[in-house]
Design goal:
Layout: E1 5-6, E2 9-10, H1 14-36, H2 44-52, H3 68-103, H4 115-129, H5 139-159, H6 167-190, H7 195-205, H8 218-233, H9 235-241, H10 245-250, H11 255-277, H12 283-295, H13 299-323, H14 332-349
Antiparallel strand pairs: 1-2
Length: about 350
C-alpha cells in the first residue's frame, strides 16, 4: 500500500495502523491479566474499578464493592509493578532498536555501552555495605543512576581520541568499561560480610521488579517517554545509518553530533531502567528484531512497535517470574534469557531473515 502525502507528513499505511491497534489491545489485556493473577485472584472488572476509583472525576462513578485488602493488593502492589514492567520493557526495546541502528550490529543491545555495569557497581555498594545512605529513601535507584552516569562519562573519555569519537572506539570503550566495572562489582561481592547481602546483590543484578512502588514509576516513565519521543523524531537519521555512515553524510546527517546525541539518550534511558530494575537481558536485543520482521526496517514504525512488544513481553516475563516457583520468585533476567536463547537459535536457522527487516 502506497504512503500518502498529507500536509508534508506521510500517512501511515492501514496495515501498520492495524498492527498498532492490535498490539495496544494486547497490551491492555496483558496489564489486566497480570494484575489479576497472584495468590489472591481478582476479577478483571474489579481490577479496573479499583484503578478508576483513584482517578479524578471517575472515582464518583465507582460503586466501591471491594474490600480494603483487594484495593491494597491491586493498587499498591500489583498495578505499580505491572506498569513499571511495561515501562522498562518499552524502554529497553526502543533503546535496543536505536543502538542497533547506530552500530549497524544485530547483536547490539542497550547494555553494550557499559552503563549497566556502572549502575550495578553502585547498587552493590548500597546493598552490601549500605553506602550512600545520605540519599535517603531513594538511595538504591539514585546511586545506581549516578553510577550509570559516571560509567557513561568514562566511556566518552576513553572513546575520544584527537577530539573525535568513532562508533568502533565507542563500542570498544563500552566493552572495556563494562569489563572493568564488572570485575569491581564481583570484587565487592566477595567482600560481603553476610551471605544475605551476596544473595540480594546477585538477585538485583539479574533483574527484579520486587518492591515496585508508584513513586518509583513517575521518573522512569517520563524519561522513557521523552527519550522515545526524541528517538522517533530522529527516525530519518536512524534509517540513513542503516545504509552506512557515508550514505548518512550524503543525506545531510551530522554523524559526529548525531552519534553523541544518540549515545547520551540511550545511556540516560538505560541508566534509568537499570536503576529501578537491575540488568534485564535480551529484551533490547530480541524485541527490535521481532518488530523489524513485522514492519520492515523503517524506524518510524520499528520504534513504536518495539515499545508495545517490549512492554507486553516484560509484563509476561514478570508474571512468569512471580508464579512459576510461587511463593518463591525468579529474577526476571533468568526468564528473559530462557526466552532469548531459543529465539536467537530460531533466528539463526531462518535463511530469509537479515538485519534490517523484510523491507516492507
Amino acid at each position: 500500500m502506497n504512503e500518502q502525502q498529507n500536509g508534508g507528513l506521510r500517512a501511515e499505511p492501514a496495515w501498520f495502523v492495524v498492527h498498532l491497534f492490535v498490539w495496544t489491545v494486547v497490551l491492555t489485556a496483558s496489564i489486566t491479566i497480570a494484575v489479576m493473577l497472584g495468590p489472591v485472584q481478582i476479577h478483571p472488572v474489579q481490577v479496573w474499578n479499583i484503578a478508576f476509583s483513584h482517578l479524578p472525576l471517575l472515582d464518583s462513578w465507582m460503586d466501591g464493592s471491594w474490600t480494603k485488602a483487594q484495593e491494597h493488593i491491586v493498587w499498591n502492589i500489583r498495578f505499580p509493578r505491572v506498569l513499571l514492567g511495561a515501562v522498562i520493557g518499552a524502554g529497553l526495546a526502543v533503546t535496543g532498536a536505536a543502538i542497533q541502528a547506530l552500530t549497524r550490529n544485530s547483536l547490539a543491545d542497550p547494555y553494550i555501552l557499559g552503563v549497566s555495569s556502572g549502575a550495578s557497581t553502585a547498587a552493590v555498594l548500597v546493598i552490601i555495605f549500605g553506602a550512600f545512605r545520605f540519599l535517603g529513601t531513594y538511595t538504591l535507584p539514585l546511586s545506581a543512576f549516578i553510577g550509570s552516569l559516571l560509567a557513561m562519562v568514562l566511556v566518552f573519555v576513553l572513546a575520544k581520541v584527537g577530539g573525535e569519537i568513532s562508533t568502533t572506539r565507542l563500542l570498544l570503550s563500552g566493552i572495556v568499561t563494562s569489563m572493568m566495572l564488572s570485575a569491581a562489582t564481583n570484587f565487592i561481592v566477595t567482600l560481603a560480610p553476610h551471605a544475605d547481602g551476596i544473595r540480594s546483590a546477585m538477585y538485583w543484578m539479574m533483574g527484579s521488579l520486587t518492591g515496585a512502588k508508584w513513586e518509583h514509576l513517575t521518573a522512569p516513565a517520563l524519561i522513557i517517554a521523552l527519550g522515545a519521543a526524541v528517538l522517533l523524531s530522529l527516525h530519518r537519521s536512524l534509517n540513513s545509518l542503516l545504509m552506512g555512515e557515508e550514505a548518512a553524510v550524503t543525506l545531510g546527517v551530522n554523524i559526529a553530533a548525531f552519534r553523541i546525541l544518540l549515545v547520551v539518550i540511550a545511556a540516560l534511558m538505560t541508566g534509568t531502567i537499570v536503576s529501578v530494575s537491575g540488568s534485564i537481558g535480551f529484551v533490547g536485543l530480541m524485541i527490535p528484531h521481532i518488530a523489524r520482521m513485522m514492519t520492515g526496517s523503517d524506524h518510524r514504525r520499528v520504534l513504536p512497535l518495539s515499545m508495545l512488544l517490549g512492554a507486553i513481553f516484560m509484563i509476561w516475563a514478570d508474571v512468569a517470574a512471580r508464579l512459576v516457583l510461587a511463593p518463591e520468585e525468579l529474577p526476571i533476567g533468568i526468564v528473559t534469557a530462557l526466552c532469548g536463547g531459543p529465539f536467537f537459535i530460531w533466528l539463526l536457522r531462518r535463511s530469509t531473515y537479515s538485519f534490517g527487516g523484510n523491507g516492507k
